[in-house]
Amino acid sequence: MWSFPSGRRLFVVLLVLVVSVAFGASDAGSTTGGPDVSRAAATPDRARYDVTLRSDADGGHWTGRQRVSFRNASDRPLREVYLRLWGNGEDQCGTPDARSPVTVSHVDGGTPDGLAVNCTALLIALPKPLTRGQRTSVAFDVSITVPDRNARFGREGAYRFLGNALPVLAVHDAKGWHLDPYVATGESFYALTGDFRVRLDHPSALKVPATGHTRTLSGGPGRTVTLSVANRVRDFAWAAGPFRTATETTPGGVRVKSYWAPGTPAAGVRLNRVDAVASIDRFGREFGRYPYGEIDLVMTSGFGGGMEYPGLVLLGTTEEGSAVVHEVAHQWWYGIVGNDEYASPWLDESFAQYANARFYGWDTRDCWSDVYWPDDSTALTGSMAYWSRHPGEYHLVYTAGPCALADLERTLGADTMAQLLKRYAQDHWYGVSTTADFKKAAQALTDEDLGPFWETHRIR
């Protein structure tokens, strides 16, 4: 999601998908008091999503079948899983005249229960307990109707954005079941990496950018099939519309595919393409080589900010460009180095904005002049539960966060900070990071006690 401005306009955005798992009905819905850490490895893991969908004439409605296979990584038997239907977050359970945008039916491989958490969580009881290391799968029909709003899951004119649309597995870890509510400002999402094989059947007049490596095949009369393969990603998103397109390859070998609506300012499109090519190679050098080979830029003039998904970013674009560098940085900070975005949004937003500031060479020595703390209890490391209650303060993860990381760079030294970020990314590659992890990693690189630094910068 987006960041604060400096010579570019401010974008604030929205995001994505996730899902939850269950080990016993008595624990379902809890996010605290989970089992012993040694027995509660994050699970289910090594998920594979096989999806076949067919769209209507304008890409606003998709129907088909989805199968999810997964492994139990925990010592505790897995008795149920949760699907997170994040696309229902805004509309919740719908109305008598309009049902929820994402519906699941005809479930095989388990027994569905009622929808919970405002229709964003569906429990599926497994036919028998799944022990550690065992795999199983569930399959279901899915219907997706793109809402009539300009948002990450929404539409703008003839263009459809399908972020948060596919049901995905939730996570159970040492803290219990992660069944957090959807938030519109910021993200609620916490997902382990999985593999996606997605087949999208659509009218040939529509271009369909999507997460992963894509190729197209002829479908039925007047139709095209877009096939996508994406490995070790936390989510899957796509868009549909009569986009204009261009493709270039960075010096580092990453393919950048650009899709834009005809009314998008040409100067902004050009700038986004240049900055994306430069930033994805630079961040590859700083944090570790981008592993997915391809990234899609989806640009329109009316989209409200920027939104990140693995291998695909949505960008509201003016003549001055967009938040493209911030969203590209999210490919590492949330995508490759994961985090619980509901519990610790600073770990992706502040890190992405710090990378953005470094890319543009902003002078961060006076950046605290833009920061105002409302009271002593406010922490940079607050959860989305806090920021949702205090939406006027959420900008702090974009302002105070990169300022704190810039101060840490001055405290450690530029070379040590670079070493810290690259090593930290490698240590958490395709994994999940926490604030405690980062503090420990930083402390390991200096003899100076960083306790006062964390307290001064409200990193708690």
What does the model show?
By secondary structure, the chain is of the alpha+beta class. The protein folds into two domains: 21-240, Immunoglobulin-like (Sandwich); 246-456, Neutral Protease, domain 2. It is 21% helix and 30% strand. Strand 2 and strand 3 form a beta hairpin. The two termini are 23 Å apart. Mean pLDDT is 92; it is low at 3-38. Keywords: Signal. InterPro entries: M1_LTA4H, Peptidase_M1_dom, Peptidase_M4/M1_CTD_sf. This is M1 family metallopeptidase.
Give a brief description:
InterPro entries: M1_LTA4H, Peptidase_M1_dom, Peptidase_M4/M1_CTD_sf. This protein has 460 residues and is an alpha+beta fold.
Q: The CATH topology of the largest domain, please?
A: Immunoglobulin-like
Q: Tell me, what's the shape? A: globular
In angstroms, what separates the terminal alpha carbons? 23 Å
Category by helix and strand content: alpha+beta
Overall radius of gyration = 21 Å
DSSP strand content: 25-35%
Overall number of structural domains: 2
Low-pLDDT runs of 5+ residues are 3-38
List the helices and strands in order.
EEEEEEEEEEEEEEEEEEEHEEEHHHHHHH
Q: What is the tally of helical segments?
A: 8
